[in-house]
Design brief:
Elements lengths: L9 H5 L20 H5 L5 H9 L3 H18 L1 H4 L20 E3 L5 E14 L6 E12 L1 E11 L3 E9 L17 H37 L1 H16 L2 H10 L7 H15 L2 H14 L3 H8 L4 H9 L4 H24 L11 H5 L5 H6 L5 H24 L4
Antiparallel strand pairs: 1-2, 2-3, 4-5
Helix pairs in contact: 3-16, 4-6, 4-16, 6-7, 6-9, 6-10, 6-13, 7-10, 8-9, 11-12, 13-16
Length: about 400
């Protein structure tokens, strides 16, 4: 009769286990350590990207700034103190008012207020001169009930984030016909920010599709697509934008012009991405997982979009984030030149048209504030794109 119990080495019998050894040998991970160290072996690619991205403080800040901008743009009817086309003929080119908690006498007020303006006309230049009236304090009310409006043109509402019962609360001044600049900037953010997202979506769809076809099939397909890319790259973009934008019918509605500009920007912006995707596909089409999918009878479109594109999706996301500012600047430039979006559409580029007149700009420099918001958004997108690119780089 044989004993099936495995024999132990004498050294294993005589040597006691270390005092700090766990009772269960599988308990080797320190539960009190950082989660990255304990679960990194089980982390997905997206989780590893997030761990690397959150270490990029500047990119996180840029992402928070963009979330705030898009949130305000989504609910612009609530955040704007006035309708973007509402006019006040008594406050034409009125300078910005300062939100105050301490009055001229040094007394603190818990509720913020603004001073009223007294307007006089300069007898020599006929320029309107506004001076603050320290005897007229206008309290600012939050969730103020004002003129009724429709949120997203669907939900009837009356309350806005802030407002006043009398006078005006023009924190960024007014324009040539007495419209509130802050309200028009908030409403313009909806157009300028969404045209970047829609344009990038169309650009990346065209670039990934044509670049993927060129890199996957090669041959005649690759030659045709590459020659088309070279032709588009050789044409100067700004004159081409101007020609195509001017070709839009003048009787089109604002919505049609909006989508027309978006399609034009998308049609001209896919060439660089298509070349990048083509290079990726040329290196991936001979990989084992692609060959296995092809031999198993998987359709070509499924191989491209289900197997090959996800392998460098992180690079696509980072590139998309860096491409949105180009779309925003393109719309702003076309609208500034008067061949993009046109009034009554309100966008940051349309608002900057008022800054073309040097005489008006010298009297009302606050009309340049839309350009400041364009700079902030573009910088936020750039730092966010840099952070995503570094997080997606496996060698970072």
């Amino acid at each position: 009769m044989t004993d099936e119990t495995p024999m132990k080495h004498p050294q294993d019998i005589n040597t006691p286990p270390p005092p700090d050894a766990p009772a269960d040998p599988s308990e080797t991970a320190d539960p009190g350590g950082p989660p990255e160290e304990n679960t990194a072996i089980f982390a997905s690619q997206w989780k590893l990207m997030w761990w690397r991205f959150r270490k990029h403080k500047l990119a996180l800040f840029g992402g928070i700034v963009l979330l705030i901008f898009y949130f305000v743009a989504a609910f612009c009817e609530f955040f704007a103190p006035y309708d973007p086309n509402a006019r006040d003929v008594t406050r034409i080119l009125a300078p910005p008012k300062t939100l105050r908690f301490v009055d001229a006498e040094g007394q603190f007020h818990f509720r913020p207020f603004v001073y009223g303006y007294e307007m006089e006309t300069d007898p020599n230049t006929w320029q309107r001169v506004y001076t603050p009236n320290h005897d007229k304090k206008i309290p600012v009310q939050f969730f103020h009930r004002g003129e009724p409006y429709k949120l997203w043109n669907l939900i009837p509402m009356e309350h806005r984030l802030f407002g006043v019962d009398e006078g005006g609360v023009h924190l960024l001044g007014t324009d040539q016909i007495g419209r509130d600049v802050l309200s028009r900037i908030i409403f313009g953010a909806r157009i300028s920010l969404t045209i970047g997202l829609i344009g990038v979506f169309l650009t990346f769809f065209i670039g990934i599709l044509l670049g993927g076809l060129a890199g996957y099939f090669g041959g005649v397909t690759d030659n045709i697509i590459q020659r088309a890319i070279e032709v588009l790259i050789c044409i100067p973009q700004l004159p081409l934008w101007m020609a195509l934008s001017a070709a839009l019918p003048g009787h089109w509605s604002a919505l049609r012009i909006y989508f027309g500009i978006t399609i034009i920007l998308s049609f001209l912006g896919w060439t660089g991405l298509a070349r990048v995707v083509r290079g990726k596909f040329l290196s991936l089409r001979e990989e084992d997982f692609v060959v296995a999918a092809r031999l198993s009878g998987t359709p070509e479109t499924a191989i491209i979009f289900r197997h090959m594109v996800p392998s460098f999706l992180s690079h696509i996301i980072a590139s998309a984030t860096l491409a949105v500012p180009g779309m925003i600047l393109g719309e702003t430039a076309l609208s500034f030149l008067g061949i993009g979006l046109r009034p009554p559409v309100v966008s940051w580029g349309v608002l900057l048209q008022q800054a073309q007149n040097f005489q008006v700009l010298a009297m009302a420099p606050w009309l340049l504030y839309p350009g400041l918001f364009v700079i902030i958004v573009v910088l936020a997108f750039n730092v966010l794109g840099d952070g995503l690119r570094d997080a997606a780089d496996p060698y970072a």
